[in-house]
Amino acid sequence: MTGVRIRAAAHYLPSTVLDNHQISTWVDTTDEWIVKRTGVSERRISEGENTSDLCIQVGKQLLETSGINPEDIDMVLVATFTPDYGTPSVACLVQAELGATNAFAFDLSAACSGFVYGVSVAQKYLLTKQYKNILVIGADVLSKITDWSDRGSCILFGDGAGGVLLGADENALFAEKLYSRGDKVITGGFTKVVNPLTGMERGEYDFLKLDGREVFEFAVKEATANINEILEQTGMSIDDIDHIIPHQANGRIIEAIAKKLKTSLEKFYVNIQKYGNTSAASIPIALSEMFKNGTLKQGTGKKVILVGFGGGLTWGSVLLSI
Ligand code: UT7
After folding, report:
1. CB-based contacts of 77: which residues, under 8 Å, 6+ apart?
2. What does pTM read for this prediction?
3. 104: which of 11, 52, 147, 241 is 20 to 30 A away, CA to CA?
4. Which residue has its alpha carbon closest to ligand 1 atom 22?
5. Of 112, 154, 226, 250, which is the active-site residue?
């Protein structure tokens, strides 16, 4: 199968750092509990920048590092479930700001699996050969839908964005397996039908809610099985894979997946301590950091598996060569 090549990767985080000590002044928790149960020490929180603002910063960096002209971008895809507006989409706002006048742009909603779904969608467009340069950005400003009085969830999340410029490459590896299973284990942002016929009472805003235990078990079980399916599909063993880049939901979820796959935790990129769970942004932020710190270098042929899981429920993996 024709693969995709990452031509550039970038990320952007709000500058304000929110540490566990600060959260422990708002809800009944401690830094020790949060670090032990989640691996998170601090996260970035927006003081006003919205999802499109973060994505625009990522888009500008992608243009700069790749040297591509904005007019040569064929498609802008933003994976998010915390858009600025219902319409225009975040992707359209990014397109406008970048001057990507020949692109078409749309958002994709698959929560924490959004970036993996986005790479899969982009690969299909690239296969047609009609589209050559595609921006895939994953971004969420979860702080705006977090219930800051719920200690079971507010400790987990952070805001951020990351993205890649993708192009087709016949010599690059590509394999994927995506899933969803409609379930309300994680919900947020419900919009009530309010109109003159129903009465105009809007009620409270619907914050992010989740059954942490159930999500934890789902994530470990399905992400492990998902990675094994990719290996089976491609006839590879886990030892053939250089890096696994998992969605950063909880450090203990990543440790459990490594253990179930009987492989070293070293194979997994982990940065949850700094950023918490940034939803659709976590995998591209990790990818961008890996390019910046020299763990990944274009043209080396390293094999990486990206694995996402989250609300929907949704989950999925893609295998790429770098
Ligand atoms: O991207 C997908 C989105 N969702 C997730 O990634 C969530 C995945 N789940 C998790 O990360 C974990 O389930 C949590 C971190 C949310 C919770 O950890 P846990 O080890 O599953 O704890 P628990 O919910 O079973 O709670 C254990 C205890 C409870 O007290 P009791 O009933 O044993 O007395 C909770 O009330 O810990 C208590 N607890 C807390 N204590 C201090 C829950 N949250 C906190 C807290 N600080 N922040």
Report:
1. 91, 105, 106, 107, 108, 118, 121, 122, 134, 135, 136, 137
2. 0.97
3. 11
4. 213
5. 112
